[in-house]
Amino acid sequence: xxxxxxxxxxxxxxxxxxxxxxxxxxxxxxxxxxxxxxxxxxxxxxxxxxxxxxxxxxxxxxxxxxxxxxxxxxxxxxxxxxxxxxxxxxxxxxxxxxxxxxxxxxxxxxxxxxxxxxxxxxxxxxxxxxxxxxxxxxxxxxxxxxxxxxxxxxxxxxxxxxxxxxxxx
Amino acid sequence: xxxxxxxxxxxxxxxxxxxxxxxxxxxxxxxxxxxxxxxxxxxxxxxxxxxxxxxxxxxxxxxxxxxxxxxxxxxxxxxxxxxxxxxxxxxxxxxxxxxxxxxxxxxxxxxxxxxxxxxxxxxxxxxxxxxxxxxxxxxxxxxxxxxxxxxxxxxxxxxxxxxxxxxxxxxxxxxxxxxxxxxxxxxxxxxxxxxx
Lengths: 169, 196
Fold this sequence. Notes:
The complex is a heterodimer. Chain A has helices at residues 4-18, 23-57, 60-74, 81-87, 92-106, 111-122, 126-136, 145-167.
């Protein structure tokens, strides 16, 4: 698997040379565009990451997780997945920390670990992606993007438990 | 965006007052501000590098070839984007890169796609195509969840890829739920604006 990225890069350059493209010029042009993009999206990203940081430090997410834990247990949903589900759309590194915690406490081949892995493999850091893409286009009114994106995340968490219990147990 | 920002900050503030975690909160603000800049710097290297290689792919005509391959499926999802436009090419490249699990390569392509979509829709409100595109990027559509499998393996899993089928079903249905809800809401908004 490690070879795949160098291979893609080598193939891209090889194909470019074959097509008689000035690959160095093209690369430098691309880097310039990339630099512009970074500078352009930076203010919005900083704003959102500060808000996300505040949300995490305030302990609100932990409190919500604790509050809905009994309800989750009542319908047979593994309570350990609740904090992961809440943190996943907001913080990629936070969700990874929870995932590794589950591997450590329950084993990487346990039912919980499988569910959490499916969640991690089928969702993205929603808030981060929404902010980055819209700020690149200078969009301020995002309509129902967050609603639909979070609905998809919620579906993924519920289905992770359903699919793992049906297919892997 | 203002509402999202405002709600997150107000909720954190009010909750920290109730729970008495104001100290951690004020520390958290400082940490996350400097963390944000560190993150931006650390992603910018990756972003510039891929943006450079992807420019080679574009100049050599590779992007155009790939986008013609993807056109039959993507045309349905983006009815108002012209198949021969740069926006469409970047969209198909971004989605192909995501499928291959090259998230870092997908990001600059996706950002370019958004910029191109903006050219056809000069307003600060998201267009239908932008919404669909962002939704496809907030859902994970990679074929092989390699990073999760690598983590599982490092924690002693015997079959780190046994979750593959579950991941496929889950991510496909989650994306469908997101896109379907979005299409329904778009239709409702259109109805409203027509009946007015």
